[in-house]
Amino acid sequence: MLAVAVLALSVVSSPSPNPMTAPPRHISAPLVSPVQLSKQAQAGKELFGLRCASCHGIDLQGSQYAPSLRGVGAANVDWWVSTGRMPASTGLRIEKHQQTPMFTRAEIDSLIAYVTSVAPGGPPIPPVYPSTDTALGRQVFVTNCQSCHGAFGQGATVGYGYLAPSLLQKSITDTEIVEAVRIGPAPMPHFDQAQIDQRKLDALVHYLSIVRTQAVSKINYGGAPMDYGGPTSEGFAAWALGMLTLYGVIRVIGTND
């Protein structure tokens, strides 16, 4: 009875796992063993074994250092690798930021071919179609993106030490945007067709391309962008400029009696 009581007490008093430090959840999807990999997938297998397997596991099962890649889909692999966030240069629980990709486009495609051949499932790389609906794109951005990425897409903090990256970087591609929308790389949520359909997604990409072009070209129709610092810094700058102007006027019209 005493042993049972001690066991029950230890279960009750054990702290719940912290989601920020808990080990990654592994996907239990089984591996598929094709009779023969394509030439592209075989090249991906060799590259995976050289640069990815030490963390993600030789069978894509994941480890204490990295999550499982079974059933994650082509969009996940493409987004993480083509944006330079993988292979990781930091710890598992440290947020990854966009940088120059380590692999060429052909090597990334071979990795995608290998992962999706032996562990199918997950979202494919989403398509992007031309759109000219700037107003709809702006509406989608304001409704779903602005609260984290900032009013101009300049990026901002989202809490818990995470950052929503800037969407004004010249290196960002349309495909990377739609992939991020569909897969939701944490802490960003994913948006499915019911939330953002293809027409809205295309309009969003079109709107962001305009904003990004203006930022890269230093075009700002609203006046001085002030590095897109937001209303607080811009308001303070306006207040400081106004006070200095007022002080100058007082000095000019003042008299010494």
Shape verdict: elongated
Instruction: Give the beta-strand count.
Output: 2
Question: What is the number of domains?
Answer: 2
> Which secondary-structure class do the elements indicate?
mainly alpha
CATH class categorisation of the largest domain? Mainly Alpha
Termini, distance in Å? 97 Å
**Judging by the overall fold, what is the CATH architecture of the largest domain?**
Orthogonal Bundle
* Helix percentage: 40-55%
The helix/strand order is: HHHHHHHEEHHH
Beta-strand percentage?
Answer: under 5%
Fourth-tier CATH superfamily name of the largest domain: Cytochrome c-like domain
Looking at the structure, the CATH topology of the largest domain is: Cytochrome Bc1 Complex, Chain D, domain 2
The main sheet comes to: 2 strands, antiparallel
Total number of helices? 10
Radius of gyration: 25 Å
Strand order of the largest sheet: 1-2
**Uncertain stretches of 5 or more adjacent residues:** 1-28
Mean pLDDT: 80
